[in-house]
Amino acid sequence: MSTKIVNAEVFVTSPSRNFVTLRLTTDDGVVGIGDATLNGRELAVASYLRDHVAQLMVGRDSRNIEDTWQFLYRAAYWRRGPVTMAAIAAVDMALWDIKGKYAGMPVYDLLGGASRRGCRAYGHASGMDLESLFDSIRYEMEEGYKSIRVQTSVPGIEKLYGVAAQAQSSGERYDFEPANRGSWPVEEDWDTRAYLRHVPTVFEAVRNEFGPDLPLLHDGHHRMTPREAAQLGKSLEPYDLYWLEDCTPAENQEALRYVRSQTTTPLAIGEVFNSIYDIKDLISEQLIDYVRCASTHFGGITQLKKVMNYAEMYQVKSGFHGPTDVSPIGFAAQLHVGMTIHNFGLQEYMPHSEKTKEVFTESLAFENGYLNPGETPGLGVEFNAEAAEKYPYEQAYLPYNRLADGTVHNW
Ligand SMILES: [Mg+2]
């Protein structure tokens, strides 16, 4: 058996949206793939991998995943950051994929085996008014989702995060991919007072229509101050949310102490985090209930498994970030982690487009609200380089926000 890596290739492809993929090949011809997609900044990670990491992979033993992770993290001297950690994540996933193929086992078996039959997923509902929102919730329930994220338009705000009815210039659903193709980010508007007034009325209407059982989630998308977040958390308490996500900007972690002291609404945070150091105090002080980190932006399977083992001691559960800006490889990677950890909570899921599925073939199954990565050895995703070539990279930017007076605000 010759498990040495002989080739490291980087692919940037755009089947509906941009993805960065790393492919490692061993002397035996075993192939492993990893996701390094960083929405709106894809080429920076592709360069990090092509110009600085690929040559270091050639000649390494693919079996030594922990050593390779530590080598890439520590030997660069410059630690952390979304570009570095997405690159490390891609290497890490590819190595777990290779190990699974050598072992003839799905990755979750190598991580400790399945702790559950499948990972419960939540779907995304949104609407411009209550009628279209209710239709959207009913549609998601018919698709099989047992938990629903609810985003709503707000009177006075023209374009708002997460509301699907706002079509993209590309023709894609807005909530399917908020990044707009082009060389400049689209400007959106924001008014926190209008938002705080409106959102509780929407959740009251949703509860009246759908009853008390259905788990409901909401994403604040980093827009509130700690006091505003506390106000929203309190005002949503009667509607029993499953979680309130990203209520304040994630870089100010102390903000969560105040929010936590003011409301019992469960809190989820971490999709923009890239290191265990971003989230360790939020976990140990029990300031959050759900870890929103994604394998792709968080150093891969190795670090995600570690942070969830740490979180287990504090009764904090997983709620991994899983929209379409995580490629099918990155999604599979965190699904394998979700299958094995004891403290799995809920998995965000948004099916990829048909074009994306042409480039990435998944063994994943979604049935009756539950996701399962399947029994295929490795991650269970195949990358089709020929199909990828049909969809060359197209520049795209996530939108940004301005307040009524023109001040830039968090998007
Ligand atoms: Mg979010």
Automatic annotation (TrEMBL):
Domain Mandelate racemase/muconate lactonizing enzyme C-terminal: 130-266
A Pfam family: MR_MLE_N
GO molecular function: magnesium ion binding; mannonate dehydratase activity
GO biological process: amino acid catabolic process; carbohydrate catabolic process
InterPro entries in the record: D-mannonate_dehydratase-like, DgoD-like, Enolase-like_C_sf, Enolase-like_N, Enolase_C-like, Mandel_Rmase/mucon_lact_enz_CS, Mandelate_racemase_C, Mandelate_racemase_N_dom
Protein name per its UniProtKB record: D-mannonate dehydratase
Organism this protein belongs to: Corynebacterium pollutisoli
